[in-house]
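Replying to the earlier thread about multi-chain prediction with a worked example.

Input:
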Amino acid sequence: MSAIDPISVEVIGSALNSIAEEMGEALVRASYSTNIKERRDCSTALFDKDGLTICQAEHIPMHLGSFIGFIPYILDKIGTGGIRRGDVFIGNDAYAGGGTHLPDIVLAEPIFFESEIVAWAINTAHHADFADRGHAHIFQEGLRIPPVRLYREGKVQDDLRELLLLNCQVPRERLSDINAQLAANRLGSGRVIDLFGKFGREKLFSAWRALQDYSERKMRAGIAAISDGIYRFEDPFESNQHPDSMLFKVAVRIEGDSMSLEFDAPAQVRAGLNLVYTSLLSACYYAVKSAVDPTILPNAGLARPLKITAPLGSILNCVHPAAVDGRIAACQRVADLVHGALAQAIPDQVAAAGNGCCTGAIFNGEQINGDSWVYLETIGGGGGARPRADGMSGIQVHLTNTSNLPVEAMEREYPLTLLRYELVDGSAGPGTFRGGMGIRRVYRAERACRFIVEGSRLRSRPWGLAGGLEGAGAKFSLDDHPFECSGTRDLRPGQIVVIETPGGGGYGPPSSRPEGMISADVADGRIDKEFARRIYAKE
Amino acid sequence: MAWRVGVDSGGTFTDVCLYHEESGRFEQWKVPSTPEDPSLGIATSVAEGLAKVGAAADEISYFGHGTTVATNSLIELRGAKTGLITTGGFRDLLEIGRQMRPSLYDMMAEKPPVLVPRRLRREVPERIRFDGAVETPLDLKRLRDEAARLADDGIEAVAICFLYGYLDPRHEKAAKEVVQEEFAGFVSTSHEIAPEFREFERLSATVVNAFLGPVMKRYIERLSERLRAAGMSAAPHMTQSNGGVIGFETAARLPVRTLLSGPSTGVVAAQEIARKAGFENVMTFDMGGTSSDVALLENLECKRSKDSVVHGYPIKTPMLDIHTVGAGGGSIAAMDSGGLLKVGPRSAGAVPGPACYGMGGIEATVTDANVVLQTLNPSQLLSGRMKLRRDLAHDAVDRLSRELGLGLCETAQGIISVATANMAKALRVVSVERGFDPREHALVAFGGGGPLHAARLAKELEIEKIVVPPTPGSLCALGLLLTDLKADFTASRIVPLDYDAAPVIEDMLQHLIRQAGNWFENESIPLEGRSLLRASDLRYAGQNYELQVPFPPGPPNARSIDGLKRKFEEAHRRQFGFASPDDAVELVALRLEAVGTVSKAALRRSETAACGIDPAPIGERDVWMPEFSERVPCPVFDRGDLEYGHLLKGPAIVEQMDTTTLILPDMRAAVDRFENLIMDFG
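Result:
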């Protein structure tokens, strides 16, 4: 490996990063479905010729799981020799090609420089489709697509496209969104080729090896600063798809500058909650990076000091044909687990548990002309309290960071009215620093349609740290009737769905909370006087 | 009555430009700013400037002012105690925002503080639907109660934002009337501030406006009073974020529009400099102490930014697409835990400042690196008004070089290279990310640090030409004498772009033209000075982001609608690499920019070139250059000695009062007839 100076690495690293970000912006702006254009539920990245991450734009950490298996699968199956300039691969399957759930459709394009593949442009977008399906096993969850060529040498494969679109509920959106994904990769590919022209092949290859080494060094530096030992944590997981509580456990072992994370969890379930191994990896990469050193570049190097295991066939490392659609719910709990364990070693670097969910509300129905519509929203909640600050209210946590759909966009596109969108009083976990507040979102159906809510922290609660108390759990109701276990439900015009997401846990004992902050919370209606008296012993 | 005066009041200095309309005489003046009451420094600067040219205040025919009052009040959260009135069920929208957290991985990162505490956010029953139908009429009694309670709470300003207020403002208008009956302070409504869809961004802009309103009003009153007392009778004007100027009265009502007051005037000045120098496509590069502002001008026009965010707050109000990056002379260089060199965004600021200022700073900054390399005069700045401590710069850079295992000068150059990469990234945001090729643009470099770093930056981005104006350090003040009066009007309504839409679009257009007409009247712009620029925001039906395309003159008809569609397709192809000619196109907003032309300062122009005689350097110093990996002797010129026709070969350094220009070894610099330095790699 040729030596490269640290300054060139920084310069090339900035250039690669801005390419990934630029791809992401192009994807959002050119797309058609609300989940991508407004909620930004998509990610873009560049991979090296061996299928290792060079950089990922700062969108959705969960999506890394869809990327890391994709290119190795193609290289393994087809080999570099069989890939031509202008080929574009499409795929989504969790067992063939490394996806994490079927709605995240990946598009990847090889980048050629001087007749040789030098890198890959890759992106994924969460297509709000495959709605109102079963989740006993993956065959019920939607169309499975292994990485196959949608374009061969620049020519679209119409037969394949027809097959895909026929299996989608909103084909018009799928087609346009896939075009936007294609445009994003093409843009990234052109930019990377320009970089090769400018810096030359050898310099770029050494630069991104150096960037991966750099992430590894930073990860090792961060781990080495943690005292050696084994840190254990356990946390129950339940979901409205599977209301029985399941106990997840982790043992985080720190040895010098290496970390191993050993998980234990019950056997995989007949519900869309299972994690394939790449899902577990993306959850762990997020959780470790955010606690150890948030500035580490998200590339393949950060994984080198980590060893991650979970029993094969368990919900955290499932085998075919387990259903995976709602895998993010369990991924969020994995992130909670890792933070809970690390809090014992580095209490100043982690927050108490946040809402710990990715509460989803999916509505679907038919337009007057018979075409289907699907509207997907994931709703934020409380962030966990921090060692020196309250948690943030109404945010997405951990593996997701999607935006909300503006009311003024939603009501125009779908036969729904949003009656309230507000923070839930009393939902924040008390503490010296309190958690963030959960969100209440109230929908009214204007026409007959169907809906399903996906959530967790129904019975378990987001935990506090260092004496901080737990936050409130999630609550759902239909026309004032609370419900917990959910399948798809029919809605009549005028029916009202209320979704309340959990608050974040508190940090530090409530008795140490400064008077001024308690009275401000009372004045702001975040807690009432009775609550203040009871929890904070304040008159 | 013949002096035009421009005053740019910044954090450190207040710059004044005076221009005599008849004789073309042009003078500049610089005084220290008075941050506790900026109007004081402004009045002083004007009085001193006038004394210098021997004129009286009543001879001022035009007064233009650029200010950081709004920006600073927002950064430092020194705005008014503000209340908010929203649609029932939506008071927390201000706090939830788009529900995204500020940093993906850093759990400790904070959202920008919410400007209205929850206790002052009040809801009233009312609901207009997406199609304009009223589902729930505005509850006037409840509104009156809430307004009265807010007044009792001692607020100074109220923001009113209802769902679909942009579509049908009747509830907001009615609410404003009632609130004003109960409360004498500042009121701002969302349809007046940002009449566009996406409720959170509109709400945010409305709240920021209310938060700044009382502060700006007080500032303007104080300043007007001082200027009147000094004997000035001309109506004062203030620059706004879109590069135009508005009367003080409008600025007091719409302070949110002045958040980029300072940087936007720099862009306007650079635009005029570029026009005269014969460039159509340029990027501006304004480098100051803590940050750099960059913008791109295509055919000499700077695009408007959409979804503008200032200090973390969405503003939604017309502003130039200016991108700011935390890379300035005071940016701190340090090695991170992975062993890479990082520069900024942490800055040593004005206090303690770079290590070489000798005011207690010990970390190496970009300025210290320049002192070590000797690209910057290592002993003094500001024509000797400020002494520099070369030894302290050396110590600071040396500490870092030992951590990095590099030589002293290699480290100093490394700091410059990393800072240059950061600035290049900012220029890429306004160029490549918007579909423009930086290599096809000249770089106009100004601000205290722009001309010093422009050459390296141009090299990095393969930019061929650099323009350094005659007075780069006070270009913003000059810009105030070069700008027209401008106001923006928007009609937001989703219309399918087909032939049937012509009458609807015509209605929207006429509505805007009427609004613009009123504004022209208020600003007393004579008929011959009025012009209107039309633009439309278009997208494919189903998309949610629009591309702005100029709207053709004349009443809309089949031909102009076809032309508009073609223009949109071209823009879409350029931005995203594809177009879908079979898909339906929607018009989302029609925009009218009203321009009131005022007589402007003319840039000084030389007719005869100084032929054959090259300027004599005022000295020589050894500058470390990575091209040679050693110090090489470099002639130093005084900018005042350079005349039209002169040609300098690099390496060379040009010094003037508040700026230093670096010409690299493989470059040359020619002085054009407007006294600009035009640098290229010839």
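Chain A is about 30% helix and 25% strand.

Feel free to reuse this layout for your own posts.
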